[in-house]
Automatic annotation (TrEMBL), chain A:
Residues 221-251, 298-327 form the 4Fe-4S ferredoxin-type domain. GO terms for molecular function: iron-sulfur cluster binding; oxidoreductase activity. It comes from Odinarchaeota yellowstonii (strain LCB_4). InterPro entries: 4Fe4S_Fe-S-bd (IPR017896), 4Fe4S_Fe_S_CS (IPR017900), Helical_ferredxn (IPR009051). Signal peptide: none annotated. It comes from the Archaea. This is 4Fe-4S dicluster domain-containing protein.
Automatic annotation (TrEMBL), chain B:
The keyword Ribosomal protein does not apply. This is Hydrogenase. PANTHER family: COENZYME F420-REDUCING HYDROGENASE, GAMMA SUBUNIT, CYTOSOLIC NIFE-HYDROGENASE, DELTA SUBUNIT. Residues 20-157 form the NADH:ubiquinone oxidoreductase-like 20kDa subunit domain. It comes from Odinarchaeota yellowstonii (strain LCB_4). One of its GO terms (molecular function) is iron-sulfur cluster binding. Transmembrane segments: none annotated. Keywords: Oxidoreductase. InterPro entries: Hydrogenase_assoc-protein, NADH_UbQ_OxRdtase-like_20kDa, NiFe_Hase_small_N_sf. Coiled coil: none annotated. The keyword rRNA-binding does not apply.
Amino acid sequence: MYKKLFKKHLENFISILSKFGVVYAPVKKASKLYDFTELTDFKELQLKYTRTMIPPKKFFLKPKEPLYLLNKDKGFKEIVDDSKTVLLGVHSCDINAINLLDRVYLNQFPDLFYKTRRDNTIIIGVSCEPDENCFCTSTGSSHALRGFDLFMHEVDDRYIIRVGSLKGFQIISECKNILADTSLPDIKEFKRVEAERIKRISLNLNVNGIQDILDLSHDHSAWQENADICFGCGTCNLVCPTCRCYDVVDYLKLDLKNGLRARRWDSCMLRQHALVAGGLNFRPTRVERLYNRFNCKMSFSEDSLNCVGCGRCTVYCPADINFVEVLNQVRED
Amino acid sequence: MTWIIKNEKPKIGVFSLTGCAGDQLMILNLEDTLIELLAKFDIKSFQEASSYSENTKLDIAFIEGSVSTDHDLKILKNIRENSSLLVAIGDCAINGCVQAMRNNQTSIAERMLDVYGVKDNVYNALEPKGVGEYVKVDAEIPGCPIEKEEVFNAFISLLNGDMPLIPDYPVCVECKLNGYPCVIIEESKPCLGPIITAGCDARCPGLGLDCIGCRGAIRGETNAKAELETLRKRGYNDKYIINRLRFFAGNFEDIKNLGVREASKGERDE
């Protein structure tokens, strides 16, 4: 089901959204930094943006979060956050990334903290503004087919809104006064605008048979060359919308009886990521960690590539390592 | 990592070699919990907190300051012999910190002349180094100064029979966890964040300032060449970058190996 919203009604639309939860949307924080921030001033809203540095995964898997209150006699108690949230302005690549995270966190052993947030969050997609670092058409993530409640396709002075869930339908039902049905010219324009958007995604990564190529290129010189300039700082993982590793730490209180178990995002580029009890580290060197990261991103989770082509790891790498170029180097095309 | 606690109230000492005593001060800065925390230990020596001192066997010795004189070295060896665990607190004790800035660049004699105007080594000074250069160190708490939360958690861990958990990753991680704009990417600032030990919660980059490396480089993981290259690309010259790296980390192998500054007597850096 599709509806039409003229841009002049956007502020009105957002005030209706706020009935469903606290609205977070892209806000510009620095020259290359957009961030999903609580929208307190409509003028700050930036629906035309390239990419946020920190992906929307931060709403489901918090960068740092408390998990359990611990007590040596009484056991533990979960700390669950069930506040209602509306994420406005999520791009297709990021929605596809959330779908990937869902497979990990909502499988047969759902992660309570992730699931609670996911159940209490409304996701509203918006058409993206591709730049030279986007390669989502290569990874099959330039369109979101599911994983959103509403998707706002920008067409000139209006949005063609696709309803993607029952929750989305409920929102639409609240907005009757500012929505209209789509007409034939809308559909025509929609096709034109969509075709133009896809044309702007010019960077191409050949992913055909990439897993074989990577498996066979374990000893390729490209890994060492890039490991030599890599800091191992973890930025690429931490800005990646599909990275899902976390590290758990217990903090004891003064009485040595009560404490807190917390987790934070981890990164496979960090030295302790593959360290296990007994002091063995599966990937002690940076080159092994780099090879592992590229392998992980180019592997499949239930028939979906683990990379959505958002370009963040390239844009935010302090050593200027270019994800696509490294893979091209290994492929030797 | 764990250790065996022999005494319910571990006997501890807090000692100072060459440094500003800021790390001892950071322990005392734990005002809200200080009394309750220290009551869990049997304190035999803590120069900055009390003039009382007892020369005895210890479960844990905390040492701040670098080994910069013969005298420091004697004290250190004595402490090591009499302690089950030795914890280096602060950058000076870990790697020499700021005092090591001129190591391998100018001789002790030149430094004596520069600073004191005499050629003789009247203080029996050594090249400033961390305590680990001379004795076995069981744990390190980095920082210049150390972070009080980190100290608190380290004390609690030790009380619980665990070794302190110290970040083994760079400041960049904390910038990302906080969503701070990267000052390298955004503004081409000479930030050392990618190679410096985290734990400060990216305090400076969070305020838009470039990291100057006060928590020290990550041992065995620092890619100093990459830092040099990254800052070169952004228009900084080698001398500036190397001096910046040496400010807190002159004793780190890979920073030491980046090149030797040709220092002449009396030259002052900008």
